Structure to design on (979 residues):
C-alpha cells in the first residue's frame, strides 16, 4: 500500500469517477421512480404518469448505454496506459484518489 | 382460424425450437461458440424473466391496477442499471466458484453448507411449482380461446397441459442434461430461449402497434383514453398506492436476482461478466419494449371487447375479435414461447438444485462404501437424478394445475413466487458484501422470511388461512412483504453479529467479499497415495477421459509427468471448484475431504492460510519489483554489450595501430641495416645510417615503453612514489621539458605565479609526466599565429588543486572530444604529430591512479584541459609510498 501512488493518472481517475457514477445511477433511478408516487399518487396514476414513467425509463436506458460505453472506453484507456487491471480496483476499495 | 392450423403451427414451432437447440449444441461441441456467446444472445436469454404471467398477465394486471403492472419491470431495470458494479461482481464471484445455482452460491459462501442449500432448494421448489402450473395454465387457456372459437373445436380440457408438460420435460431433459460439465452451460437451451425471446417481443410489439394505430388513433388518443380512466369508478384500482408501488419494485428487483431461472441464465450460463456491458442497457430496453403497449392494450381491450371478458386473455381475444387471425397466431406463439422458456429454464435450474443438494448428498450418504471398493458411476447417477428432478418439477406443476383447477387461484402465483425467492436476497447480498455475515445468520434470516412468507403470502394464496392486514387502509401484500423482509434482514444481521463462523466459512467469506481466488487448505500426510483415490473420485463424476485429462494437465502444470499431481492446496482448490461445477460446492467439499483425508480446518490452519495469502501477496509485489529490476538489468546488460562490442572493435583497431606504428621504424631499421651490409660505404655514410637506425630503434623503444606503461597503469599494479612537492616547481620543470617539442615555436606563457606555490602530496614524477604531455600537446597542435599558453591553478577547499592548461588554437571538435583520451586517438595526421597517440590515454590512466582526473574543457577558445588532484592519492594504490 505504501508504494502505491497517492494520485492516479488521468485515465484511471476518469474510470474511477465513471465507476462512481455507475454506483450512484441505480440509487438515483430508484428514488426517481419511487418518490413521485409517494408524493402525488393521483397525478402519477394515469396518462401523465404513464408519459412521465416511460419517458424517464427511456432516458434511463439511454443514460446506462452512454455510461457503459464511456466505462468500456475508460477501461481500455487505463489498460493502454498500463494502469492497474480495471477488474480488481472496482471492488477492492479506493486506495488512491 | 381452424384449430388444426393452430396445432400445426404450434408443432412446427416446437420442432423449430428443438432444431435450433440441437444445432446450437452441435455448434458448441465443435467449438463454434463465438456467436453463441454473443452478448445479444445473453441479453435475449435474460428475457426468460418475462414468463406467460407477464406476457398475458401484464395486460390483465394493468386492466385491474393500471400503471402498477410496471413495477414488475422497473425493479429489474433498476438492478440492471447497477449492472456495472453489482451484477458484474456477482457473475465474477459465481464463475470463480463454479456456482451451479442460487442455493449453491449461498451455501458456498456460508461455508459450503449443504443443509443451507437444501433449505434454499425447498423454498425455490415451493415457490416455483405453482408458478410452473401458471405457465401450463396459460398455454391451455390460450388453446381454449382458439378451440371455443372454432365450431368444430375438439374437446381439449386438461389434455393440453399434460401434452405441453410432457413436451417441455422432454426438451429440458434432452438439452438440459446432456452433460455434466464443470461449467453448467447449456448452449442449446440458451439459444432456443434467445429465439423465443425474439418471438415474444415481436408478437407483443406487433399487437401493440396494431392496437395503437389500428384500433385507436395513435398515441395521443391512447393517452387521452388512459387519462379518461381517472374518473371512472371501474378504474378505482388504477390509483397508485405508494406502499404497493415501493414494495413491488423491491420484490421484483430481488426476484430478478434470486429466481432460479434468472440466476441460471444470468449467472450460470454467462461465459464471463463482459456480457453485462451490453445487457446492462439492452435488458432494460427489452423490458421497456415489453411493457410499452401493455396499458394501451388494456384500455382498448376494455372498450372493444364485450364486458366480462377475461382481461388476462385480451392479448388473444383482441386480435381475434378484430379478425386478425395471423396476428392472433403470432401472439399465441409469443405466449407459448414465454411459457415454455420459463418452464424449461426453471426445470433445469430446479433440477440442478434438487440433484445437487437433495439427491446426490442423500445417495452418497446411503451408499457410503469403505475405501478401496470399486465405486459406482456417480456421473450416471447425477444425470439420472437431474432427469428425474426435471420430470418431478414439471410433473408437480402439472399436478398442481390439475388440482387447483380454477383460473383465479393461479393469477397471483407470479407475485407469490417473487416474494418467496426475495427472502433469499438478504443472505445473498449480505454474503457478497459483508464478511461478517455467517451461516447461522443466513439460517435465521432465510428461515424467518420463509416462515413468514408461507404464513402470510403463500398459504393465503392457495386458500389456506387469510392474509393479515394490521389496520384498515394498509395493503396486506405490502405489509406481508415489508414484515417478512424486515424481520428476515433483522434476524440475519443480528445472528451474524453474535455468531462466530468456522474457518472454512471465514475463508469463503473472504473469497466472496473480496472477489479473490479461494484457497483450500488441508493438512495431508502421504500425498502420493491420496492422489489416486481423488482421480477415481473425479472419474466417477466426469467420466474416465475427462478426469484423466484434467489430472494429466494439472500434473503437467506442476512439472510432473504422468497422471498424479501433488496434492498442493492449489490443485485441491482447483479440483474442488471444478467438481463443484458439477455437483455443487458442499458435496464437492465433502467428497474431497473424505477421499483426500483432509482434516478439519482449525483456526490455526486459517492463520496459516492467511499467512500464505499474505505471502502470496508479498510474492506478487516482490515479483513486480523483480520485474522492474530485471528490466533495469536488461537495459544495463544491453549497454554493457554495446560497450563490449565497441571495445572489441577498438581492440582490433588498437592492434592494427600497434602493428602500423611498429612497422614504420622497423622498416627503416631494416632498410638501413641492409645498406650497411654493403661494404662500399664511406665512414661518414656508415655513421649516418647507424645514427638513423639508432634513432628509429629509440622510437621503437619509446613506443614499447609507452605501451608497457599504459598496460601497467591499466592493470592497476602501478607503484606510486608519493611525496610532497611544490606545484610551481613541477610546472616549471614541465614547461622546460616540453620546450624541446617543436622548439622553433615561441609561446607566450600566461601564468599566475603566486597561486602556483602550492604543496601537493602525490607522485611528482607521474604528475610531471602528465603536465609535460599536456603542455607538449599544446605546443604540438596549437595552430594559432601567435601561440599562447595559459596555466591557472586553483586551490580547492578540502581537496587537491585544480590545474587548467589551455592554448589559443582551434581546439578540438565537439564530436571528437570524447575520443582524445582513447589510445592512438591522434587527431591530426601522424606525420605532424610524430607520436604514437598514446599520450593522453596514459595521462588519463595516471590521473586515475593518482585519484584525480583529467578532462577536456570545452568552450575555452582553444584546447583546454583540466587536471584535478585529490588531497592525497588513494591509499590502496599508494603501496610504494613514502
Amino acid at each position: 500500500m505504501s508504494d502505491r501512488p497517492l494520485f492516479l493518472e488521468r485515465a484511471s481517475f476518469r474510470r474511477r469517477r465513471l465507476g462512481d457514477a455507475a454506483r450512484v445511477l441505480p440509487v438515483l433511478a430508484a428514488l426517481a421512480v419511487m418518490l413521485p408516487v409517494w408524493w402525488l399518487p393521483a397525478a402519477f396514476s394515469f396518462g401523465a404518469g404513464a408519459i412521465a414513467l416511460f419517458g424517464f425509463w427511456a432516458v434511463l436506458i439511454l443514460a446506462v448505454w452512454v455510461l457503459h460505453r464511456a466505462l468500456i472506453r475508460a477501461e481500455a484507456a487505463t489498460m493502454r496506459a498500463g494502469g492497474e487491471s480495471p477488474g480488481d480496483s472496482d471492488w477492492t476499495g479506493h486506495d488512491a484518489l | 382460424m381452424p384449430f388444426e392450423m393452430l396445432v400445426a403451427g404450434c408443432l412446427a414451432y416446437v420442432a423449430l425450437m428443438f432444431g435450433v437447440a440441437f444445432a446450437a449444441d452441435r455448434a458448441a461441441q465443435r467449438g463454434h461458440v463465438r456467436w453463441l456467446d454473443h452478448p445479444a444472445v445473453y441479453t435475449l436469454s435474460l428475457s426468460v424473466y418475462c414468463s406467460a404471467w407477464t406476457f398475458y398477465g401484464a395486460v390483465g394486471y394493468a386492466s385491474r391496477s393500471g400503471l402498477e403492472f410496471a413495477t414488475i419491470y422497473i425493479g429489474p431495470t433498476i438492478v440492471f442499471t447497477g449492472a456495472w458494479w453489482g451484477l458484474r461482481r456477482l457473475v465474477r464471484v459465481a464463475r470463480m466458484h463454479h456456482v451451479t445455482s442460487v442455493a449453491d452460491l449461498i451455501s458456498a459462501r456460508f461455508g459450503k453448507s449443504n443443509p443451507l442449500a437444501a433449505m434454499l432448494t425447498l423454498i425455490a421448489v415451493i415457490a416455483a411449482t405453482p408458478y410452473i402450473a401458471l405457465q401450463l395454465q396459460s398455454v391451455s387457456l390460450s388453446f381454449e380461446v382458439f378451440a371455443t372459437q372454432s365450431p368444430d373445436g375438439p374437446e381439449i380440457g386438461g389434455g393440453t397441459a399434460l401434452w405441453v408438460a410432457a413436451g417441455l420435460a422432454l426438451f429440458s431433459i434432452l438439452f438440459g442434461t446432456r452433460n455434466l460439465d464443470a461449467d453448467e452451460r447449456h448452449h442449446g437451451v440458451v439459444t432456443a430461449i434467445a429465439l423465443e425471446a425474439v418471438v415474444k417481443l415481436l408478437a407483443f410489439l406487433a399487437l401493440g402497434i396494431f392496437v395503437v394505430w389500428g384500433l385507436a388513433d395513435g398515441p395521443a388518443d391512447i393517452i387521452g383514453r388512459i387519462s379518461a380512466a381517472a374518473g371512472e369508478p371501474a378504474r378505482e384500482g388504477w390509483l397508485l398506492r405508494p406502499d404497493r408501488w415501493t414494495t413491488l419494485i423491491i420484490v421484483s428487483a430481488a426476484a430478478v436476482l434470486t429466481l432460479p431461472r434468472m440466476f441460471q441464465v444470468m449467472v450460470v450460463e454467462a461465459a464471463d461478466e463482459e456480457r453485462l456491458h451490453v445487457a446492462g442497457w439492452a435488458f432494460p430496453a427489452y423490458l421497456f419494449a415489453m411493457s410499452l403497449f401493455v396499458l394501451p392494450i388494456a384500455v382498448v381491450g376494455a372498450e372493444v371487447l364485450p364486458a366480462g371478458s377475461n382481461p388476462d386473455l385480451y392479448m388473444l381475444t383482441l386480435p381475434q375479435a378484430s379478425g386478425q387471425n395471423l396476428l392472433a397466431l403470432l401472439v399465441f406463439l409469443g405466449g407459448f414461447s414465454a411459457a415454455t422458456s420459463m418452464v424449461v429454464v426453471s426445470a433445469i435450474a430446479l433440477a440442478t438444485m434438487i440433484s445437487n443438494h437433495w439427491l446426490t448428498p442423500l445417495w452418497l450418504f446411503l451408499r457410503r462404501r469403505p475405501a478401496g471398493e470399486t465405486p459406482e458411476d456417480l456421473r450416471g447417477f447425477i444425470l439420472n437424478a437431474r432427469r428425474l428432478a426435471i420430470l418431478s418439477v414439471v410433473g408437480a406443476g402439472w399436478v398442481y394445475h390439475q388440482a387447483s383447477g380454477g383460473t383465479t387461484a393461479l393469477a397471483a402465483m407470479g407475485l407469490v413466487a417473487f416474494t418467496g425467492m426475495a427472502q433469499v436476497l438478504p443472505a445473498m447480498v449480505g454474503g457478497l458484501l459483508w464478511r461478517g455475515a455467517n451461516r447461522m445468520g443466513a439460517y435465521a434470516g432465510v428461515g424467518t422470511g420463509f416462515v413468514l412468507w408461507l404464513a402470510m403470502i403463500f398459504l393465503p394464496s392457495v386458500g389456506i388461512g387469510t392474509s393479515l392486514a394490521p389496520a384498515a387502509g394498509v395493503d396486506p401484500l405490502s405489509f406481508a412483504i415489508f414484515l417478512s423482509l424486515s424481520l428476515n434482514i433483522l434476524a440475519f444481521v443480528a445472528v451474524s453479529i453474535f455468531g462466530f463462523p468456522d474457518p472454512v466459512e471465514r475463508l469463503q467469506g473472504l473469497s466472496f467479499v473480496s472477489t479473490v481466488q479461494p484457497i483450500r487448505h488441508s493438512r495431508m500426510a502421504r500425498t502420493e497415495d491420496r492422489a489416486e483415490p481423488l482421480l477415481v473420485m473425479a472419474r466417477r463424476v466426469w467420466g474416465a477421459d475427462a478426469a484423466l485429462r484434467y489430472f494429466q494437465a494439472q500434473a503437467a502444470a506442476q512439472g510432473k509427468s504422468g497422471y498424479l499431481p501433488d496434492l498442493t492446496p492449489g490443485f485441491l482448490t482447483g479440483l474442488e471448484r471444478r467438481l463443484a461445477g458439477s455437483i455443487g460446492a458442499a458435496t464437492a467439499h465433502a467428497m474431497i475431504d473424505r477421499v483426500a483425508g483432509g482434516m478439519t480446518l482449525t483456526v490455526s490452519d486459517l492463520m496459516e492460510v492467511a499467512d500464505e495469502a499474505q505471502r502470496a501477496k508479498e510474492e506478487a509485489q516482490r515479483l513486480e519489483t523483480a520485474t522492474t529490476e530485471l528490466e533495469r538489468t536488461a537495459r544495463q546488460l544491453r549497454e554493457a554489450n554495446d560497450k563490449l562490442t565497441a571495445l572489441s572493435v577498438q581492440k582490433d583497431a588498437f592492434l592494427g595501430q600497434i602493428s602500423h606504428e611498429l612497422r614504420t621504424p622497423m622498416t627503416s631499421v631494416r632498410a638501413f641495416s641492409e645498406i650497411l651490409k654493403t661494404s662500399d660505404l664511406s665512414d661518414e655514410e656508415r655513421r649516418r645510417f647507424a645514427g638513423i637506425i639508432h634513432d628509429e630503434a629509440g622510437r621503437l623503444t619509446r613506443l614499447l615503453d609507452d605501451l608497457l606503461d599504459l598496460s601497467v597503469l591499466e592493470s592497476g599494479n602501478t607503484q606510486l612514489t608519493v611525496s610532497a612537492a611544490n606545484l610551481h616547481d613541477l610546472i616549471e620543470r614541465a614547461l622546460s621539458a616540453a620546450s624541446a617539442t617543436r622548439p622553433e615555436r615561441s609561446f607566450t606563457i600566461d601564468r599566475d605565479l603566486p597561486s602556483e606555490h602550492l604543496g601537493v602530496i602525490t607522485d611528482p614524477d607521474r604528475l610531471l609526466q602528465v603536465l609535460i604531455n599536456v603542455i607538449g600537446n599544446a605546443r604540438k597542435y596549437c595552430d594559432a599565429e601567435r601561440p599562447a599558453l595559459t596555466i591557472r591553478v586553483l586551490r580547492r577547499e578540502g581537496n587537491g588543486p585544480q590545474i587548467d592548461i589551455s592554448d589559443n588554437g582551434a581546439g578540438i571538435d565537439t564530436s571528437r572530444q570524447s575520443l582524445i583520451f582513447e589510445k592512438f586517438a591522434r587527431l591530426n595526421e601522424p606525420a605532424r604529430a610524430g607520436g604514437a597517440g598514446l599520450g593522453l590515454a596514459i595521462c588519463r590512466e595516471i590521473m586515475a591512479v593518482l585519484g584525480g582526473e583529467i578532462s577536456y574543457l570545452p568552450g575555452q577558445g582553444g584546447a583546454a584541459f583540466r587536471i584535478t588532484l585529490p588531497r592525497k592519492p588513494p591509499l590502496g594504490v599508494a603501496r610504494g609510498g613514502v
Observations:
- Residues 529 and 564 of chain B are 9 Å apart (CA to CA).
- Strands of chain B lie at 723-726, 748-751, 759-762, 788-794, 802-807, 853-856, 864-868.
